[in-house]
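S., here's the first fold you wanted:
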Amino acid sequence: MLLAVAAFFAAAVLAPTALRTLGLRAFWLVALVPAAVTLWALAVPVPHEQVVPWVPRLQVQLAFRMDTLALVMTLIVAGIGALILVYCGRYFTPGGPGLPAFAGEFTAFAGAMLGLVLADDLILLYVFWELTTVFSYLLIGYDAEDRTSRRAALTAIVVTAAGGLTMLGGLVLLGLRAGTFRISEILAAPPAGPAVSVALALILVGALSKSALVPFHFWLPGAMAAPTPVSAYLHAAAMVKAGVYLVARLAPAFAADPVWRPVVLVFGGATMLVGAWRALRKHDLKLLLAFGTVSQLGFLTALLGAGGRAAAQAGAYLLIAHAVFKAGLFMVVGIVDHATGTRDLRKLGGVGRSMPITCAAAVLLTASMAGVPPLAGFVGKEAAFAAFPSDPPVLAVLVAGSALTVAYSVRFVWGAFADKGIEPVAVHPPEAVLAGPVVLLAVVSLLLGPLAPVIDGWLAGYGMAYPAGAADEPLALWHGFTVPLLLSAVVLAVGVALFPARFFVARVQDRLHPPIDAERTFRLIMRGLDFAADQATRFTQRGSLPVYLRYILFALLVLPGAALMSGLPWPGAARIWYVPAEIVVAGLVCLAAFATTLQSWRMPAVLCAAVTGTGTATMFVLHGAPDLGLTQFLTETVTLVAFVLVLRRLPPRFVERQYVGIRRVNAALGVAAGLLVAAMGYVAINARTQAPISAAYPQAAREAGGANIVNIALVDLRAWDTMGESSVLLIAAAGVTGLIFVRRRPRLPRTVEAPGGTWSLPGLRSFGEPPEDAAATTWLRGSETLSPERRSIMFEVVARLIFHPMLVLSIYLLFSGHGTPGGGFAAGLVAGLALTVRYLAGDRYALAEAMPIGPGVCQGAGLGVMAVTGLAGLALTGSVLHETVLHWRVPVLGEIHLVTSLAFDIGVYLVVIGVVLDVLRAMGDELDRQVEEEGEEVITA
């Protein structure tokens, strides 16, 4: 099952390239993946499960389970997906903008939906749930230049993501109360109590928002801005079916909960009526079907969540029937739109005579939607009526909603294909490939009715999870003359009668206005949030770093400070130092920090601040942590270089003088925050109630085949943390360096003057390009590009001497980090410093020669290596990022030990080099360019 899901995502990665190479025919190639998964699903035994450990300590697993309900949804997701991909091969115009990305996003969307329905872990289900949200956003906003598409996509992701976050709280609470996050185990032994009711309420909010039930129904019709294939898949097999599936999955265990049944029946019934009522007024065929989908989703939710066996099997059967007729009808709308250039039923005339095959298929599909015998819709609706013999209010809602369904079904067929007494539109008959999937779905819909008994036996595996009812009957095309049959006849009669009365119905709708407009309420809420965010931003984001620091330090004093004073145990006697040298180093750090606050010149302030960092590194060494000391020292060196590069664009002195009162406030906040952090660290260490996990690190390090606990913790014991921190580091680096490239403010003058001195910038670099043959004649380009007053022969000689040894040292630190101080982070910093020396001795041309690969490539390659290492551990040992120690004996060299986490460390090494390169590119290279551009402008003027 994991491979089936992975196949979709692999196809999604390859689909864009296939589209660029093969054109629209690539859609047919991609369709082979869901087609193969469909055949696999039919062959796999049920039930069947697969479990791969993911985060064992949090009880999170890559757990997949194929049971009857999952099989139904798999056939819908994969089968309908394959047909729509075939349809795409003739629907789109060759060479259309964004088609390669669309192919990948659509395939990934299908893969996420498949993972969702197969997931047997609550957290894994949520991951796929949110993936469907993200991919649906991309698909709905396919036409990025169209404002309507962007707005529809934004509305969809806001509503469904908000519901998803609410649902996440419910899933976590439910898993904690059950003692497991495995869905099958929860359903086998469901917990109970008020906390479970709260969890179910939160989960239902997510399900209702995902399936566009009232009051979240407004986002789905807006999603019709997407291309027709997206609409067909979205409504028939994916996204909106996720909420219905979740209700069907949890109902067998929780239908008896006091929260469950009222919520499901009330909101499901209301949605069925509201959607059908709104569909009667729509002139756009896609919007008509969209509101019809809203109605049908309410119907399915009420059936599958009611808690009875008969209702559940009727709902599962209608789930299949709805996927078939709704996918086919949306593709019919796409064919009509292609053939005529419009979807407005007021402008369509005579289409049925011009496209008889498409018209016949549409009539069959619409008849199934309306519940006309002997089609699938009739069997399902009759079974639904029979499932509520003792619940008249629910039965009345189902009958009324079904009658409205018949009415808008007749309106759809009449609007799309009837003559209507208007001039026939010009029609371009569709290609066979375009109409083929529609005809196939029409035939399937026709066969589902007579095959109902067979399907009923197939669905029994799902229905058996519910308690049996006294009036339960198997699915069949004919049960005799019964009350459900009479109700079906009434539904058809009333629905057909509503069509001639459509003008009267329209006048009634004009007079009836809902007391609360859900979409308008949503827009008001969004405006309110925007206004609140704007006001909060105006108050907090004032463009002043000291102000930001005041807010941060104040929050630190209020929140953790209150916790510290609320009763945490204070230790008694304390050991202030271990060796006398610590007193000296600590004193120097404090003096340097105090001296930093007294400086009026920027460079001395930076140097004093660097002393504090170097002192901290020394403290690490004195405490027996040479690896931390080395890393801290290297980090301080890189930071100092970055500061010096930035200072070229700032006045030499701090020009702005703060008021005495503000300086006192800043001093008080700084001192109080420093004391608080020291006190918190002291209390936290001494108030420990459990043995620290670090006590087990030495033994774990020996088992990992190393002696450097710090590096082993980073690349093995806590590799997940390192991977996340590396991602955050890259994001921060991209954000900070991006500020250099996005120049929103007016350009600075050639020189920056301040009281006490002037730094002339144009003399720092020459404006000429290096000669073409410079690489063949010199090692450092700076000898040809730097102005003579900026060259340092001594520094160039030193750079020649230490550049290559520094690179060799970095490689040594990388490979020796498992047993001695070093590792990927320290090694990357050393390599980055070597490149920094090369840049400072030369210029950006020298840096480009030394490292022709861009920082983005290094960073991406590093993260890629880390990810591949994790997946390799999953493939080889069944656990992500699992380490393996390889031993073999080599002649002369002796025994060789190779740890697989070294590959992970190489990824860290590349990431750090990429970050240093990013800093040099932005604060060195880009600032050089800005200086040259401003110098050229002034010279020209």
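And the second, which I think is the more interesting of the pair:
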Amino acid sequence: MSNEPGTKIAEPRRASYDAPTAPEPCPAIKNADIEMTDEWSHHDSCRKQKNRTPSDSSQGDAYNATPVLVKFEKVDIKTEVESQIKAEFEPEAGSPKISDITEPAQKQNENEGGAKTAKQPRRTPAKTAFEYHKRKQEDSIGGIRKVRKTVRNVDPEKLLHSISHQDPVTAYNAGPSNGAAPAMAVSTKKAFFQEILSSCKDKDAFQKFKTDLNILDEESRSFGFKRMQMKNGMWQLKGMKSPVYHYQMSGAAWMVKCECSSEGPLGGILADAMGLGKTVTSITTMMANPPPPDLKKKFQRTTLIIVPRSVLHQWKAELETHGKFKKVLIYNNSDTDNNMPRRIVYNEVVLTTYNVIRMNFPNLDNETMERLCNRAAEEERSLTEVIQDWVTEKKKDAGCLHNIHWYRIILDEAHFIKNPSAKTTLAVLALKSHYRWALSGTPAQNGPEDYYPLFCFIRDPEISKLTFSDYRAEFCGPEQTEKLGLAISKVTICRTLEDSLFGKKLVNLPPPHTEPVTAKTSDAERLLYTEISARLVELGKGKLDDDNPQKELSNRLAQITCLRQLTAHPDLIEKDILLMFDLKHLQDLQDKLSKVERTGKSRVLLDMMQDRVKNWVARKKASKGRRRPVQRRKYCIQCKHSETEDLWIISICRHLICTDCLDNLEETVEDDEVAKSCPRCQSTFYTHNVKECQAHSMKKSKRSTSGNKGRDALKFRPSPAGATDWLKRLDTKKSRLQLLPTTKLTEIIDRILSWKEEYPRDKCTIFTQWNHFAVILGVLLQKEKIKFVYITGSMTSQQRTRAVQEFHGNKQVHVMIMGLKAGGLGLNLTCANRGILVDRWWNEAVENQAHGRIYRIGQKKPTTFVTIVVEDTVDDDVVDVQREKQEGINSVMEILSKEQEARLDRHGVTNTEEDGVSNSSESGDDESMENLQDEYDDENEDDDEVMDETDEDEITEEDESDGDIESDEDDGS
């Protein structure tokens, strides 16, 4: 299969690269069970032979000609195993002479007349990885030399298990119990190999270690003559600033081999577990296989790296730390100085985000998409190739990134393109390049369907030609597991903490610990939860008119979200409570609370909750009789909440959006004016195109910036969606607003105070999904005089970078409050060794990503990761649904069982149906909670992220973030 439409690539598949014709192969050299056949060992033999003295002749020519694995010095022989080591390192009596060894490995054949064929001439060592693999391919085809059979076997079933089970604690405990290999002060392969073999304790280990050493030796030589050298027990590639681990060298060797392949695809999927250094492995590959001169002349020499916005600057720092790249560019749409292809292609590496790629993609409507699908079917081509051709035809409408032929494309957190029909996915697939790599520790978060866009991206010769429906039919059924595993194993490499090398763990990391905490609610909280869940069930049963403001609370996803927020803190759903309950309901709730028994610590919470309900009753009385605001049935197209006084109309497309979501949209600069895109229809609009939904003054929607409560060490505070009034009351100097000490909130604060007292130097990360709850935590941490910083999904890149730097560098900052998906992707937070997960997620892979932020290479302390679940609430149900996912690729949950639906219904989560008709206006017939969340996320997938388009470093009060704390990027839920 050609790499690009209409492009035919010569064998081996390195575009337009004509390698010099190689001489004939060098001889094969064998000794005992170790076989070393390559140009490097032969070159070393020749050098030794040339420098021989007459006195050396008595030792035997064969000994001097043997390669590195054979030429070891003597070792003390004390055991039977050590005797085998001696046999490996020393020649036996009667070893073949030099004349026998230097004969070509392919024995000379005599013709019928008895004449001998001429000897094969020796060839010089391969200087580059491309030349090395070119020779290997020639040898395997022409039969010139014996092709080495020593390769790493891949078990498809084990690979599927590794990909789908990325829990760091389980993997660590399943791996070797004797820790990682100690650091070795050796700088030659000879010394390293001898040290490893000398550590063998039995025959089986000896044979296994010998095989692993042979594989490592060949992988190191595949980079070219003396390009990969041993340094202090690690591997140093020529041109790299820092050495890499054994498994990273092996990973880079596999990636380079794929790029030099003659069969394709020219790329693959690097699915190493979180924290094992996929970034460094990729950088090693970039340094090992640079663009050839002819591609440089064609300006096809640049590597494009697409990353989540949260790790944009982290990637740049890694490139500067480990590689030697002269020109690295961070590209965004507002960069007018570098917004032309001819300027971009002069850089060796270009870094950008998924949202920028999406914005560079021409607008593709449904009609055009259907036409392209038909065209692909008629021409028997992949849809990816057809879309790429369409982008070429639309060259003027496409951004400059789609008008460049890249040398290599690397996707970090590649599960961002899991939705095959999303605009971000199509935009990524339409990019042109020679090589393509997808990096993800969780490539299949929900099931085998998630792999389809990745197969298309890397241009798999077979699967990329299938439609999504055909792919599901052929690869996604329970009976196709073996077929799927085989297809994945051809293009994927995956190493986890469970894997071992030389009987040791891959990396030396301290043991991780997880601590699930089940918290029991107080009687007052239980009463409030029961009343609210029962009311939600009533709303689900009732047939509500479209203009009824309670209609949105009959939506199943809205109900789930409401209950999940309630388990964290009632203040998060205060407006929903006032919406769902009328005055009589609130007065009944007030009476029931007065009858609750006052015991112990719950006395304070009960008194405060009674005051809160009393306040709700007073507000409800004050609003009674008021005329409902116009367009009361309208809601924000992004967050689905209907707060009419906080809604704005985009005059160009007439879509409604709330203040928080409006501020959360990415800004670009066009003609010196700030522009944004509608999250529903992608229409571009400017500030003057937005009008208030009703006739309120501009002051009504402006945020209060006078308060200091809840601000972090950088004086930053998120602005929660729908909580403007709450913040105003919080910031008032004479405010009587007190934060309810709920079960979950108390558990978090008590644990942080305990850790600070027992481990004053330890740092902690708190993962939550709600901005409002993040501010509540910030207020209490501030009250306890604990310094902290925020990381939210709507912060600018500069704000995030400053927060991460402050957390790393300031010893006084002990806590980072961050979004589960905003901070749970790609960030390196090894300065912290403790984590708290406030809100469980439907997909365990997202939670593992969060744990992977602190448990990764560079972590020096044992880590503790606490997950908090409130007993007998929707928290329990999320965990149960997560556990009961089917075991195909172990991340799929197609449907909810009757038992699951009944359990969720008991907590007021699901809607009941009357007369067979669902009352859910948004969810349709979806039965899966996670699939429902996916549908909701995918609808808003094009609102991906807030990209910093300014050069300002100062965080002003106007920079406050809003909306959900989680990133708007395709979160892989």
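Why I say that: Residues 516-622+703-945 form a domain with the Rossmann fold fold (CATH 3.40.50.300). Residues 152 and 429 are 30 Å apart (CA to CA).

Talk tomorrow,
H.
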